[in-house]
Amino acid sequence: MTPEQNKYLEEFYGAHFHEIMLHAYSVLSNWPDAEEVAQDTFHTASEKIEVFMTHPSPMGWLKNVAKNKALNKWRFNKRRDQGIISMETLSRELAGDGADYDMPSVVSICAEILTPEEFSLFREIEIEGSDMKTAAEQRGITVWACQKRIQRIKKKLQEHWPDK
Amino acid sequence: MAEHTGSPTEKYWYLKQLSTERLEALLTAQHGADADTELLDAIVEVMIEREKNNPTGRLPDIDTAWNDFQTYYNTPDGEGKSLFPEETEDFTKSRPAEKSLTKKSPHSRSHFSNCIRRFVMPTAVSVAATFVILFGIQASGIDIFGSMAKWTNDTFQFSAGHSSDIYDALQGTLSEWDIGNVNIPHWYPKGAELASVDVTEDSETVMVWATLKSSDDKTFFISIDKYDAPQIVDSYTFEIDAESVEEYISDSKLYYIFTNTDSITVAWSDDTVLLSIWGDLTVDEVKGMVNSIGG
Question: Could you tell me which residues of chain B have a Cβ less than 8 Å from any Cβ in chain A?
């Protein structure tokens, strides 16, 4: 970005970040998620700065981006919740018919497959539902590095359970 | 009474009298193809202003947020990436339909301690003061934001005009939601009509909100919040900017009447119910409705 573009983005951010966050909240009903979506929205604005700056309605454009991202986050949350249900199902399968199942047994298998660091990140993001920025901040990395690690972790688990 | 024209915030002036929790619920109800974008923008404006004057932590400090943006998001390794790539699927298709409204089974009354405190009590006033009334239940270190569950909501349209019709329609809705034992006004100002009733529910609360209009296009509202969980998670804060407040006793119940130049609010609570009436009303009209409660 040029200095002029950066200045435009910073001023717009200062004036409208909360507004965008509230629009995201209207979809997600969760403040950390809304903040994460708002940050990702402004990241997209920075990526498409020329479109953003020259759009006839920059705020309308930004709200639309935020709405679509919030919907995607909402679906991500649903999939995550379903992933937890899948782990329960898998636990039952491992325990066998009629036996008491223990969901943590699946989790402990994940712990065996992954390194301690990988497992910690996986648990935070995929099971406990922490936002990416908090996880990134704790590890001193960017959200993108965090995202990349999660993708690698999922691939590792999928290789172990290709049918699940 | 002042006319309310112009910006959405002026048109939706009553939003300022709602609690932040109520505003959150209204905000999340504005989604999909039927969203009222003007109302949504008005709610956003009120919430930002309120958070600016009394930060609760819902919205981060802007400088901190910008620093986080620069540190964790707007970085070289984020080029071409997105946490949540946009999709343009129709929201009404992608989000499941609102869950079917189920009748709640009656719950036994829980025992809560009431806490009503008045913080400021000016005498003759020309300057508005902020009155904070705490109804219901004291919190005990529980995260009230984390406890907010998904809301369901529904809106019923009415055309009830006479007082008895309004009472019957509203009472019918309350009975539908198993809170028919709550006493509501039998009398309503002449010419008032019940326009709609909105019901919002989560795992611990049912909120019934009636919109009424009078013959000279004035609007006022009645809301009944019924708390039902055995361990309620927060105290309800009724915060209002008013020029004066009056304690009014009717049928052995204590009501608070808040008066502004352009609106009047009356509120009452017991262990599990919060009743409030507010809008373009005169003090006599408000007292008339209050006097008819339980009659």
Answer: 24, 27-28, 30-31, 40, 43-44, 47-48, 51, 58-60, 62, 65-66, 68-69, 71-75, 77-89, 91, 94-95, 145, 148, 150-151
